Amino acid sequence: MQFNNFDANTVDPNVAYEPLPAGWYKAVIAASEEKPTKNQLGSYLQLELQVIEGPQQGKKLTDRLNLNNPNQTASEIAYRTLSAICHAVGIMTPRQSSDLHDKPLMVKVAVKPADAQYSASNEVKGYEAVGKATGGATTQEPTAKSSTPPWKR
User: Fold this and answer.
1) How far apart are CA 26 and CA 53, in angstroms?
2) Does this model's pTM top 0.85?
3) Which segments within 37-150 are labelled E, that is strand?
């Protein structure tokens, strides 16, 4: 394989993944996508969350909501999680997942320990409105007013 003038000086190298420490983080839903389940019998909403404040700013997390699943319990849990997100961002009747994008909320993160098959990873355990979550997370809003959100500047 030829590299066609590839220059490693112009591309940031990959770094080893390290999970975020457990705790509450101020974040936004940066992207969302409906994906089919592995068995093709349903679908889930995959959320890409981005931390917007503190030492972990810019780090990303993923959460998956099994909204369309033949397992009724899985669907109920997913809809409760979606309700928690809606309450956290103050949008009670979203028409589509993108309605929830770029709205600050607090995300509770846990660390799933490594096992024989996978390295340590993060799991999203809860959502709260900014200012409501506990655990020492930064919950102050930026004081400078701008039309561009602080995480997009």
Assistant:
1) 6
2) no
3) 43-51, 60-68, 105-112, 121-128
- List 1's β-bridge partners, or say none: none
- Helix (H, G, I), strand (E, B), or coil: what is residue 100? helix
pLDDT of residue 138: 43
Phi, psi angle pair for 7, to nearest 5°: -130, 105
> Which helix (DSSP H) or strand (DSSP E) does residue 73 occupy?
helix 72-89
Angstrom distances, CA of residue 98 to CA of 10, 31, 46, 85: 33, 7, 12, 13
Label residues 6-29 b or e (16+ Cβ within 10 Å = b): eeeeeeeeeeeeebbeebbbbbbb
Q: What's the rounded Cα separation, in Å, for the pair 122 and 135?
A: 17
